[in-house]
């Protein structure tokens, strides 16, 4: 199995989006950068904030596209091609409407589920075979409310649940970097099943 060599956090650039549900991917990559003691720097050729980090004794690229969500693939493919990183060596961290806040799942491949960032990355890489860390943010219940929902901050109890889920993701990082993706998936999902994800109150 291939080790993860590039971790991409999805979100929208700008202070007005920083705390919104759609930026959950940025939150985890920001934490990884802090853990590695590095600052992500804007790189024009990669259309994003990028940095090479040393985590758990292994080097990995961290990337936050600054293209807005629906153009994320431009940034991902630019860095991946430059450093000859294959799709199955890429982990994309993103908000997931189909999981309640506090739940988190790891998978490889599959559809984009209507997520504009995943859709564009899949189109640019010409394959869905990259890895995804799906950070549950919940669903508004009405499909017409999705855009408004993801562009707003989580409620406090949701944010606490999401933060806990991202902490659990940290526990599998050494396995991901070592190429032990099967074991990482099993551990994350086992730990996840023990948690009680936050479910919105009726009418919320």
Automatic annotation (TrEMBL):
The keyword RNA-binding applies. It holds the Pfam family Pept_tRNA_hydro. Its EC number is 3.1.1.29. Residues 184-204 are annotated as: Disordered. GO terms for molecular function: peptidyl-tRNA hydrolase activity. NCBIfam families: pth. The active site is at residue 22. InterPro entries: Pept_tRNA_hydro, Pept_tRNA_hydro_CS, Pept_tRNA_hydro_sf. TRNA binds at residues 17, 68, 70, 116. It catalyses: an N-acyl-L-alpha-aminoacyl-tRNA + H2O = an N-acyl-L-amino acid + a tRNA + H(+). Hydrolyzes ribosome-free peptidyl-tRNAs (with 1 or more amino acids incorporated), which drop off the ribosome during protein synthesis, or as a result of ribosome stalling. Catalyzes the release of premature peptidyl moieties from peptidyl-tRNA molecules trapped in stalled 50S ribosomal subunits, and thus maintains levels of free tRNAs and 50S ribosomes. The keyword Lipoprotein does not apply. It is an enzyme of class 3 (hydrolase). Belongs to the PTH family. The record marks 12 as: Discriminates between blocked and unblocked aminoacyl-tRNA. This is Peptidyl-tRNA hydrolase. It comes from Jeongeupia naejangsanensis. Monomer. The record marks 95 as: Stabilizes the basic form of H active site to accept a proton. Signal peptide: none annotated. Keywords: Cytoplasm, Hydrolase, RNA-binding, tRNA-binding. CDD domains: PTH. It is found in: Cytoplasm. Gene3D superfamilies: Peptidyl-tRNA hydrolase.
